[in-house]
């Protein structure tokens, strides 16, 4: 999961009774993605583009939603659309400095 503030163990205690929250925590192993540069960030960007370009209006039926999303996806793939990733190696060295050994 990503590092959204609701994706913390404390959120379960805010939502459920302590006994239920503890039982849930015993079942889960939290593995967080990187805050920058993860595939999840790219998926979120693509979903935002879909929302802005295709789903930004009222669509009456699920059948029509499926058709519109499919057509949008085909057009996006035909254009070979890519994400212009702006988080550079240099940015990573600054932001993630504590993870790299000092030389």
Features:
103 residues, mainly alpha, 5 helices
Structure characterization notes:
This protein is an all-alpha fold. Helix 1 runs antiparallel to helix 2 (18-27). The protein starts with 8 loop residues before the first helix and ends in an 8-residue tail after the last helix. Helices cover 54% and strands 0% of the residues. The mean pLDDT is 84. The protein is built from 5 helices and no strands.
How far apart, in Å, are the first and last alpha carbons?
32 Å
Low confidence ranges: none
| Largest sheet geometry | none
Secondary structure tally, helices = 5
Output the radius of gyration.
20 Å
Strand content: under 5%
Q: Sketch the topology as an H/E string, one letter per element.
A: HHHHH
Offer a concise description of the structure.
With 103 residues, this protein is an all-alpha fold.
């Amino acid at each position: 999961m990503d590092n959204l503030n609701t994706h913390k163990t404390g959120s379960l205690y805010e939502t459920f009774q302590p006994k239920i929250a503890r039982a849930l925590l015993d079942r889960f192993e939290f593995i967080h993605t990187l805050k920058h540069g993860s595939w999840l960030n790219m998926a979120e960007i693509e979903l935002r583009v879909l929302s802005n370009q295709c789903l930004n209006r009222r669509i009456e039926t699920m059948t029509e939603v499926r058709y519109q999303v499919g057509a949008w996806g085909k057009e996006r793939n035909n254009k070979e659309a890519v994400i212009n990733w702006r988080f550079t190696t240099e940015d990573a060295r600054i932001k993630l400095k504590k993870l790299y050994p000092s030389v």
